[in-house]
Design goal:
The protein has about 375 residues and is of the alpha+beta class. It has 3 domains: about 170 residues, Reverse transcriptase/Diguanylate cyclase domain (Alpha-Beta Plaits), CATH 3.30.70; about 55 residues, DNA polymerase, domain 1; about 130 residues, Dna Ligase, domain 1. It has 15 helices and 12 strands. The strands form 3 sheets. It has a 5-stranded mixed sheet with strand order 5-6-1-7-8, sandwiched between helices. A 4-stranded antiparallel sheet has the order 9-12-10-11, with helices on both faces. Helix 4 runs antiparallel to helix 5, helix 12 packs antiparallel against helix 13 and helix 13 packs parallel to helix 14. The radius of gyration is 25 Å and the shape is globular.
Length: about 375
């Protein structure tokens, strides 16, 4: 079996919000909306959870349990930016990453660029804390299930390595709640049959496990036996590249456009370094109210040339200037990354010029104007007939 590293960010959403809000670690933080709002808790810090706050709970109940907590709505653009930065950071130490979820990655030992998997994990965790302000836990084992459980045991910020060949023995004495993917209902059914540990579940015959757990028994039973349930889906390229630039006040439209161009230049350089091409560009601006506004554009040809990316970024930034307060922060995101560049032209026909994309972007219509245009065209054809 190949040795694996599971990297988990157990408090990802809370850590991202705490960093943005510049809150001390001792301040209880609850994500989901205002304390008096009608919504539910999306995430809660450990201090709030100790007070009884849980995801899915009403915000009003959470406010009753943790009256001193800071309540924030949760902004998806913050998490998207953090995931892009996290992915790029992790790849400094490894050539391939399988992102199982927004806050969980699996990395095989063969993907580590140099040194041991444990040394790489330690370096990643230090960098994630220092550069992104996020806590992370890491587990190393022969199988993904044992590595995931190891990371959960030392959360929020430890590193635990299971000795080679000891995965099943490591899991056996642990409570069922540590088994990833085992539902609460399945746990209750097992406990009703005096099966309280992972080892006891692993010792069941297949037909017994199916009888007690019911549908979906096989993955849980195989995980308890430290059997690999899936093949890794590792990728060699990041999901996206993001570059950010704070803007000193006051700024004008030209300043925002120049900032977007500068960031597009940085993205272009990084794409060249990793041998990748982008198929889409997104520009985000943030106003003084910390509200994000964004616009994206899909290129007709994948590219990494500054001459292609910068005009698109500039045009998108100019359009975003029209909305809300003058921005205090600009970011440029390249996504749809691929190792394949623009297609070669045939028979002397020139390849697509991205400048055409920019001109086409300037002339884009809204969905409403397209519908009006279609109605007018239909009316003209009706009159002509």
């Amino acid at each position: 079996m190949a040795t694996l590293l599971t990297l988990v960010l157990p408090d990802f959403v809370v850590d991202v919000e705490r960093r943005w809000e510049a809150l001390a670690p001792t301040v209880p933080l609850i994500v989901g909306g205002p304390a008096t709002g009608p919504g539910q808790v999306v995430a809660a810090c450990r201090v709030a959870r100790q007070a009884g706050v849980r995801p899915g709970q009403s915000l009003r109940e959470a406010a009753r349990l943790a009256p001193q907590a800071r309540f924030v709505p949760g902004i998806l653009d913050r998490y998207a930016e953090a995931t892009s930065q996290l992915d790029e950071l992790v790849r400094r130490w490894c050539a391939e990453v399988d992102w199982v979820a927004i806050d969980r990655a699996v990395i095989p030992a063969s993907a580590v660029r140099s040194g041991s998997l444990a040394a790489a994990a330690d370096a990643m965790q230090r960098a994630i804390r220092a550069e992104l302000g996020l806590s992370s836990a890491a587990g190393i084992a022969d199988t993904e299930v044992a590595a995931s459980v190891a990371a959960a045991l030392v959360a929020p910020s430890g590193l635990l390595q299971v000795l080679p060949g000891y995965d099943e023995r490591f899991l056996a004495p642990l409570d069922l709640r540590w088994l990833v993917g085992l539902s609460t209902a399945a746990q209750d059914r097992l406990i009703a049959h005096d099966i309280t540990t992972i080892g006891a579940l692993a010792a069941l015959a297949p037909h017994e496990a199916e009888r007690i757990i019911g549908s979906g028994w096989a993955p849980a039973w195989r995980s308890a036996r430290a059997e690999e349930p899936r093949a890794l889906a590792s990728t060699t390229l990041p999901r996206s590249l993001t570059r950010v630039l704070p803007l000193p006040a006051p700024v004008g439209s030209e300043d925002v456009q120049l900032a977007a161009e500068h960031l597009a230049d940085q993205v272009s350089q990084r794409l060249a370094q990793i041998g990748a091409f982008a198929h889409a560009v997104t520009v985000r601006v943030m106003g003084a109210d910390q509200r994000f506004r964004s616009r994206g554009f899909t290129l007709r040809e994948s590219t990494r040339q500054r001459a292609d990316l910068a005009p698109v970024a500039r045009t998108l930034a100019a359009r975003l200037w029209k909305y809300g307060d003058p921005p205090t922060r600009v970011s440029v995101v390249a996504s749809g990354l691929t190792a394949d560049g623009p297609q070669l032209s045939l028979f002397g026909v020139p390849v697509h010029d991205q400048a055409t994309s920019v001109r086409r972007l300037d002339g884009l219509r809204t969905a409403r104007s397209f519908r009006a245009l279609a109605k007018g065209s239909l009316a003209r054809r009706t009159r002509a007939s």
